[in-house]
Amino acid sequence: MAGDELVELKFRLADGSDIGPSKYNSSATVTSLKERIIAQWPKDKENGPKSINDIKLINAGRILENNRTIAESRLPLSEVPGGVITMHVVVRPPLPDKNSDKLQDNSQKKGGCFCSIL
Predict the structure, then answer these.
(1) Which residues form the Ubiquitin-like domain (predicted)?
(2) Whole-prediction pTM
(3) What is the rounded end-to-end Cα distance, in angstroms, of the chain?
């Protein structure tokens, strides 16, 4: 069956280092790829992804959707037969702590003008 062929992928991180290459079944979902990326994320790198929602996978300039398979997400014209496909990994930066935001908001409010117009 053509949908069950193996595809060799590597994942390029923002600093230029790679995870992989490894072979994946073409029926694997983008979500399962993201789970593997999280599991294989280098421990020495700061700000690693905490969940699949923190990661965007990009192949040939397209952001891949979580529910699609590798076979559905591939662009055969941009690939070399038998070659390794490089997907770029973009990690969403961690969200600021809500408590620290509140402290900044309160300090800005305290410095405001207390004038009244009569």
Answers:
(1) 7-75
(2) 0.73
(3) 82
